[in-house]
Amino acid sequence: MGGGAWGTALADLLARTGRFESVTLWAREPEVVDSINREHVNHVFLPGAPLDPTLRANGDLAATVRGAEVIVSSAPSHVARQVMTRVSPALPRGALVVSVSKGLEPERLTTLSCVLGEVLPPNTPLAVLSGPSFAQEVYQHQPTAVVAAARDHAVAQQVQQVFSTNYFRVYSHTDVLGVELGGALKNVIALAAGILEGLGLGHNTRAALITRGLAEITRLGVALGAEPATFAGLAGMGDLILTATGPLSRNRSLGVELARGTALSHALAGRASVAEGVNTARAAVTLGARHGVELPIAQQVAAVLFDGKPPRQAIADLMERELKAEQWGGEGGGGSR
Question: Fewer C-beta neighbours within 10 Å, C or N terminus of the chain?
């Protein structure tokens, strides 16, 4: 459910496993549906990538999910509720639902598994899939490791069986909240990493950002009820390293543009895909204030995004904060560091 790059790459992966009688990709854009069905390529979101010829696309939500064993929710975070609310009445009884989008619902500041839990029928088997995984590299069958999380470990193990291939390794977990928060909040730090790169700063600065960014993510995650160790794994440190350093990262590249003087509205207007870190930065700062957790990096990113703060001033303000002892993010729950 969602014809972006990530949804398309996963649909292609599932089609190629041969485990299902058919795999159908729902896309909102008629041109995506048409190009997949006619040419077996998603020219809009995954151009130049021939898809499995058995993969079909459909613009009708109800028809797409009819009879499905597994539903993959890959719509961007800000429309996930809308899409899956429309899916709910047509959802086959007992179908497994897997959320693969990385973000928080902007209005309610909640994770997407909570959103799906609200709109889907009671007792729907529900899991999340996250970790360091650029769509293009998954499509190219480059070795990738991710994590599937569900409150019922048996459901997480079922997701392992659905998605695992000889190039796509899936680990299981039960900390759904931690896995989702890691996947969402790392986008904010990736924006900051792009800003550093756009300003011409080097490896010392990036290493400090990633390390302190992970501590910041962990602090907030633990305050919200996640397990600290989750953030040292694939959905935390792994995904953060990827998106803060990889050239395919949408959030990192957006940060580069902002540092070079491009206005946020102009930078976003030229993108087909969503940079989830923009909405997540605002959500993270609000959640931090609500739970008494200091998030200095997220606060400065939000100031650059929404208040017009010069990036160099944001860095200076981070460096000139009160001197403190280094403490890891999960110690003692919330609070300032």
Answer: C
Both 128 and 261 in one domain: the answer is no
Q: At what angle do helices 250-259 and 176-198 cross, to 10 degrees?
A: 30
CA dist., res. 249 & res. 57, Å (int)? 26
CATH number (domain holding residue 197):
1.10.1040.10
- Verify whether residue 309 is a known catalytic residue: no
pLDDT in tens, 280-333: 999 999 999 999 999 999 999 999 999 999 999 999 999 888 888 887 654 444
Residues in the chain predicted with pLDDT less than 50, given as ranges, are: 330-337
**20: domain range?**
5-174
94 and 70 in a common domain? yes
Model pLDDT, residue 328:
64
pTM check: above 0.85: yes
Q: Which residue among 102, 186, 309, 324 is the active-site one?
A: 186
Strands 24-26 and 96-99: unpaired
Q: Which pLDDT belongs to residue 327?
A: 72
Q: 81-120, pLDDT tens digit by residue?
A: 999 999 999 999 999 999 999 999 988 999 999 999 999 9
